[in-house]
Design a protein that fits this description.
This protein is of the alpha/beta class and 278 residues long. 29% of the residues lie in helices and 16% in strands. The strands form 2 sheets. It has a 6-stranded mixed β-sheet with strand order 4-1-5-8-6-7, sandwiched between helices. A two-stranded antiparallel ribbon has the order 2-3. Helix 2 crosses helix 7 and helix 4 (192-207) packs across helix 7 (257-277). The longest helix has 21 residues, at 257-277. The radius of gyration is 19 Å and the shape is globular. One of its GO terms (biological process) is peptidoglycan catabolic process.
């Protein structure tokens, strides 16, 4: 899909769908970073060359904040008036608040896929001491709108905002993932930081065995000027289209628990790699 802190209007459904901001979704565990353990005062120097005592080293993600934005929402389809309401989308544009997203040919919906993957990504990051904020807390609500999703990431002062989606191209050969970023940039965060996040995300997902898109972008990267969640972000932000839900092989991966876990693992590792070098 080219549609759902982020945020964007990607997915075949035509937009990003935001849900209500806040702390973690129903399932993910607490994302608060663990506080490093305290250490005793250093021992008095001695003639022997024993190594000095050291304090516990905080995890790499300690103090970092990541906003995860699972695209769309389960209640969008039953609230057309609300999700079709026009909202600011950046660059002087307005767009529908959100969209319903796409689905596999067998009916597995994008909003369920993105929510499940986001929770697994969040669990992995929280275990590394990273604070995780989600743009929606369940898969049965409406929205939030794309501008609200962007605001969640901005208000959280996120070190990285990652919007998770899946595409719905009906082209018989269309498959593969791509990572969208705002271009040309509208602020400093949309420049090098977002491009670095996009490249790191692309590299990480590709290195985990996923093929880059055969039909959108170039080498897995897609500069965009029409995605509200990205346009309105003042933090490093990207939108990941994990693959094409209408492609039989990728639909199978997205519909299975093991496949979703694989996507989540790749995305989480890429986020960690970005934060380590940020």
């Amino acid at each position: 899909m080219l549609t759902g802190l982020l945020l964007l209007t990607a997915c075949s459904g035509g937009g990003e769908t935001p849900p209500s901001p806040a702390a973690a979704p129903t399932s993910p565990p607490s994302s608060a970073a663990p506080s490093p353990s305290s250490s005793s005062p250093p021992p008095a120097p001695s003639s022997s060359s024993s190594p000095p005592s050291t304090s516990a080293v905080p995890p790499v993600g300690s103090g970092k904040v990541v906003v995860l934005d699972p695209g769309h929402n389960g209640g969008n389809a039953s609230h057309p008036g609300e999700i079709n309401r026009k909202v600011p989308a950046g660059r002087g544009q307005t767009k529908p608040c959100n969209t319903t997203g796409t689905s596999t040919n067998a009916g597995y919906p994008e909003h369920a896929f993105t929510f499940a993957v986001a929770q697994e990504v969040g669990n992995a990051l929280a275990a590394k001491g990273i604070k995780v904020v989600y743009t929606r807390q369940n898969d049965s609500g409406v929205g939030p709108c794309v501008d609200e999703r962007a605001k969640i990431g901005n208000d959280a002062n996120a070190d990285a905002v990652v919007s998770i989606h899946a595409d719905g191209s009906t082209s018989p050969t269309a498959h593969g993932f791509h990572v969208a970023y705002s271009a040309p940039p509208l602020n400093a965060a949309q420049g090098e930081p977002s491009l670095k996040l996009a490249r790191t995300m692309r590299d990480g997902i590709r290195d985990d065995g996923f093929a880059t898109s055969t039909y959108i972008g170039s080498a897995g990267l897609s500069p965009r000027n029409d995605l509200g969640g990205l346009n309105l972000s003042t933090r490093p932000a990207v939108l990941v289209e994990c693959g094409n839900m209408r492609n039989a092989d990728e639909a199978g991966q997205m519909s299975s628990a093991s496949g979703r876990a694989h996507y989540a693992q790749a995305i989480a590792k890429a986020i960690e790699a970005y934060l380590a070098g940020a």
